Amino acid sequence: MTDDGPALIATTADVDPRAIIGAGTRIWHLAQVREGARLGADCNIGRGAYVGPDVIIGNNCKLQNYALVYEPARLGDGVFIGPAAVLTNDEFPRAVNLDGSLKSGDDWHAVGVVIGDGASIGARAVCIAPLTIGAWALIAAGAVVTKDVPAHALMVGVPARRIGWVGRAGRPLVQDGEDWACPQSGERYREQDGALQLIS
């Protein structure tokens, strides 16, 4: 069902009627949105993307083609998930139990990835749950994130490590004395105890 207005859902998309889709959200060819998922307003769900049961996605989010967002993920407003990126949900994956029987939903405990407002996950990055990615962080394409990420962190590599900071515009920040400055917006930030705070 849609929430307070029209959404655009491709006829070839598979959207469960128990999902809630926000006004103006667009769900494209071959995307799947499972039961209980809640998508905010003005989101874009690309071709072949997957949104698991009871996943919560904020307003103005973009899931690019073939992004996989497994339950119980929680995405804030303005989150970007790049093409073929994966948010996992199983710490100890196995297809079968010790007796060889196929595992069911009752045989394991799902853990999720939580992503703060404005953060971006690059193409083919993998986020290994459980973890939290702070607001406005930027995860580089192909990175594998295994630990919590602070707000505004620029993360690269396998496993991902912080190599700098990014501002709300997504550009790497430049150190200027005690502060960090955004070359695009002019916003200034200060680092304290491993965290970055907007100061002007």
Structure report:
The chain has 200 residues and is an all-beta fold. The protein has one domain (2-167): UDP N-Acetylglucosamine Acyltransferase, domain 1. It is 0% helix and 34% strand. It has no helices and 27 strands. The protein has strands at residues 2-3, 8-9, 14-15, 20-22, 26-27, 32-33, 38-39, 44-45, 50-51, 56-57, 62-63, 68-69, 74-75, 80-81, 86-87, 113-115, 120-121, 126-127, 131-133, 138-139, 144-145, 153-156, 161-165, 174-176, 179-181, 188-192, 195-198. The protein has a nine-stranded mixed β-sheet, with no helix packed on it. Strands 1-4-7-10-13-16-19 form a seven-stranded parallel β-sheet, with no helix packed on it. A hairpin with a 6-residue loop joins strand 25 and strand 26. The protein starts with a strand and ends with a strand. The relative contact order is 0.09.
Give the CATH H-level superfamily.
Answer: Hexapeptide repeat proteins
Q: Figure out the total of helices.
A: 0
CATH class: Mainly Beta
Give, in order, the helices and strands. Answer: EEEEEEEEEEEEEEEEEEEEEEEEEEE
SSE-based structural type: mainly beta
Radius of gyration: 18 Å
Q: How large is the share of residues in beta strands?
A: 25-35%
Mean pLDDT, all residues: 95
Q: Give the overall silhouette.
A: globular
Q: So, CATH architecture?
A: 3 Solenoid
* Helix proportion: under 10%
The biggest beta sheet is recorded as: 9 strands, mixed
